[in-house]
Amino acid sequence: MIDRNEGLSRMRTLQLVVVLIFALLIGRVAYIQFFNADYKRGAARNVMRVDVQYPPRGEIFDRRGEYLAQNRECYDLMVVYRDMDKEGFDTTALCQILNMERRRLVQRLNDARAYPRAPQRVANYVSKEEKLRLDALGFRGFYTVNRTVRHYPLHVGGNLLGHLSEVSQSYLDRHPEYSKGDYAGIGGLESAYEVELRGKKGVKIMERDPRGAIKGSYMDGLYDSLPESGRYLTSTIDARLQRLGEELMEGKVGAAVAIEPSTGEILMMVSSPTFDPEELVGRERGNNYIRHLNNKRNPMFNRAVKGKYPPGSTFKLVQGLIGLQEGVLKPSDLHPCHGGYKIGRGVACHEHASPADLRFAIATSCNAYFCYVFRDIIDNPKYGSVKKGYEVWYDYVQSFGFGRQLGSDFLDENRGYVPPRDFYDRVYNNSWNSLTVLSLSIGQGELGCSALQMANLGAIIANRGYYYIPHIVKAIEGRDSLDRRFYEKQYTKVDPKYFEPVVEGMWQGVNVAGTSTQARLEGYDVCGKTGTAQNPRGKDHSTFLSFAPKDNPKIAISVYVENGGFGASVALPIASLLEELYLTDTIRRPEMLKRIKDMKIYYPAYDK
Q1: What domains appear along the chain, each with residue ranges and CATH number?
Q2: What's the sign of the alpha-carbon dihedral 563, 569, 570, 576?
Q3: DSSP string, 311-362
Q4: Distance CA 74, CA 152 (A)
Q5: Which residues pair with 60 in a beta bridge?
Q6: What would the pLDDT profile of 537-560 be if each residue is shown by its tens digit?
Q7: Which pTM value belongs to this model?
């Protein structure tokens, strides 16, 4: 028999256990009520539906106000799986409206089943007509969210403008401000100015009744927010020039860039082959993207800023300017050329009168002349050694924007390549001289540059010694100016007075006698320099550098056509026709226009 004291002890123990259990329960309820957001979120999902309100993306105009990238109305079809009519849902009807495969719809619904209370996207790029049909049938649990998508009315500038794509997980990891289902710019202007273009999302909270049906706006929209539209951009591009440039480069591989020398504004940027940016909008976007990726000519690679090409004979202009500044060359200096430079392994040259002075050497593109000039620069006794002289030459070349990024507003601008002294020290075990690197004198060897860098060289010579950093945007909505770096003059290491004889040589080559006479435009004093860049894997590359007019220049242009042969054969007429359109608003040489448009070049490297 249990005594009274023991019974009281057991009773107190039991009471203590009961009190502790109640304390734990009360504590848990308090934690759920006041501290744990998961339950709040779960409760909120039962009574609220949060709809993201997507902002219209900023539109893009050319310099004359013509649309390059426009918005059009579109919708996303969303579903809340728990609200669906599982038994009466007509899968076939929905697939017919959306022109969607049944397999794909079933997969989307299976994905939604994993998060039955959360809205999940079933289809994007739903048109206004499709939305009206969906609304008429009233599929329970489905609703549409308004979005805008891109429309590219001129169908030009694929690499220039870039395109939009749904953000990937790796993009989300790098940019936590985005959410799954958002779109962001990929490449070109769409990427470079993503922050300005994207706008700010809003939110609309809808309240449900106990059966899940939408009653209306939660608390009369107290917690709703409106989306903020992205800023529109006025680009520096001349749409007429861009369109003609793409037409002339069709069937060819290469790039063409035009710059306004007085501002650094990019008037045209063509990479060929290109793609129609409209192809990367809509439900066929994925198929078109894969098709372009599988094209061996690589239309999605922007050769204008990413390509790395040997500059060829256009680089002789830089050699002449350095020689003049260094005092190892005077414009009247004569050098012989009897089929080329004959010292060492030598460099061949085409037939022309000999000897030549600087102006004539530029006009006729004499190889031998610039071999003499280059060797005089780096063999200059005042530097004590060829290696020291080479370092001086290297610094000059970099001041012209080669071997480094120019700082443009393209995110993926190629640096090009100018070999530093230690490159040759390694390759030749510290035993080399000016003859070893003689190919640099005519823009060959290890030199590499982009079409943008070459066009910038044209702007430098047009300005007699300085340039503005090339840029693709002229104005941003709501801003008084661009980044200050685009308004600052960038000077080379060559004094302005030394540019005049080089300009004269380019003018003579077009207007008197030389390799560039096809580029002559009556009354516009065009200056130009052809280039034929040697190519060890096929026909030589064709390039042409030009600006016009000679005084108060309005345009500087570089055209580079892979495997195009002589500079005067393909690149020159393309550049000349573009200059003609820009300066005169018309084309007066229809025969040349037709010949270049009809010209298709076979590329063994791409077309096997």
Answers
A1: 48-77+118-235 (3.90.1310.10), 239-607 (3.40.710.10)
A2: positive
A3: -GGGGHHHHHHHHHHHTS--TT--B--SSEE-STT-EE-----SSB-HHHHH
A4: 15
A5: 69, 233
A6: 778 999 999 999 999 999 999 999
A7: 0.88
